[in-house]
Design a protein that fits this description.
mainly beta; six-stranded antiparallel β-sheet; globular
Length: 182
Amino acid sequence: QISEDFETDPPTGWTFMQTEGDDPGFVQTSARANSGTYSFYHNDDNITVSSTSWMISPSLTVSTGDILSFYHNHNFDTYGEENGIWISTVSADPIANPGDFTLLYDLLANLSEDTWTEYNQSLDAYNGMTVYFAFKYAGDWEDELYIDDFFAGTPPTETADWNNLQWPPNGAITTGDNYDVY
């Protein structure tokens, strides 16, 4: 499984590519984080010409029941040119082999201006295949894209075997009722 909270720089096994030399690409930031202190983001840098940046995950061999999950957040989303997460079953190089990558989710079509939004998808269609995930940012002085809490693999199945709830509303708990617990 791949579990990345982006608290280390660079994240282990991830690859970063840009089509233009003055594009800083995806970098770690403490400006916004879904959890922890850091996320990875692409800034709205004013560079010479439009560039395409990629943040590519390590490989994952997909098993039945595996999922993809991550959080995304935007700033200045009305200026975005292209943001998305792509998948490849062939290579880990979207610049040399762009035809190997297929769009899974268009981040600009599902905007999250100044709000962390979770994305989840079943990977059952890729069962038995080795895949790479790649976040794509295209543009010049466009939006800011933040990514955090990436997970791909079998979701945890552990459940709490003991719970302690203190100070329930109205002093009582009734079986079958719904409660907000923090």
